[in-house]
Amino acid sequence: MLKPRILVAAAMMLIAAATRLFPHPANFAPIAAIALFGGATLYDKRLAFGVPLLAMLLSDALIGFHDTMPFVYGSFALIVCIGMMLRTRRGLLPLAGAALTSSILFFVITNFGVWTAGSIYPKSFPGLVACYVAAVPFFQNTLFGDAVYTAALFGGLAIAEARFPMLRTQEPKPLGQQ
Question: Would you state the pLDDT for residue 91?
Fold first, then answer.
């Protein structure tokens, strides 16, 4: 039986992934926020990786698959790991730092994928630099989108937890304090 918290977190990630289907500015997407949220809120590792990746796969099935998917999904998995580090530290500063780190990681890995898998840039160091330089104007939307969706997902869950106590995590107590 799935716990209510898992169902709520999964539904939130699926809804966020569905927003990729609506018109939006380039790179203003919930990708990193979904991965961070999954890693931070789903304590079963299979779910922490599986639910965000499934949400992404479902939206990609509608948007269309592409040559850089291994890079996108690889960065997504690494961002889930960053989210796992948020499990015990949910303050504003750790959350902002994790969102920023995720944005940078996604930028570095996926643009490397564009250079590697694509034919636009020469396969040389200057070609790689040109690829990253061309992507810089889109990075601000990545940062803004990650910040907005991270705030929406984590803030939404915090509001839901306050309203419905059954959604709160029950941290295991150390031995001797049971």
Answer: 86
Q: Answer for the pair 115, 71: CB distance below 8 angstroms, yes or no.
A: no
98-121: per-residue pLDDT in tens?
A: 999 999 999 999 999 999 999 999
Give the contacts of 113 (CB within 8 A, at least 6 positions apart).
Answer: 67, 68, 70, 71, 72
- Rounded Cα distance between 35 and 50, Å, is 10
| 35 close to 3: Cβ distance less than 8 angstroms | no
The amino acid present at 174, given as its one-letter code, is: P
Does the pTM exceed 0.85?
yes
Amino acid at 29: A
Residue 168 has pLDDT above 90, yes or no: no
Domain map of the chain by residue range?
12-19+26-159
DSSP 171: P
Q: Which residue has the higher pLDDT, 96 or 168?
A: 96
65-101 burial, b for 16+ CB within 10 Å, e for fewer? eeebbebbbebbebbbebbbebeeeeeeeebeebbeb
- Write the DSSP string, 69-82: HHHHHHHHHHHHHH
Give the separation between CA 86 and CA 89, rounded to whole angstroms. Answer: 5
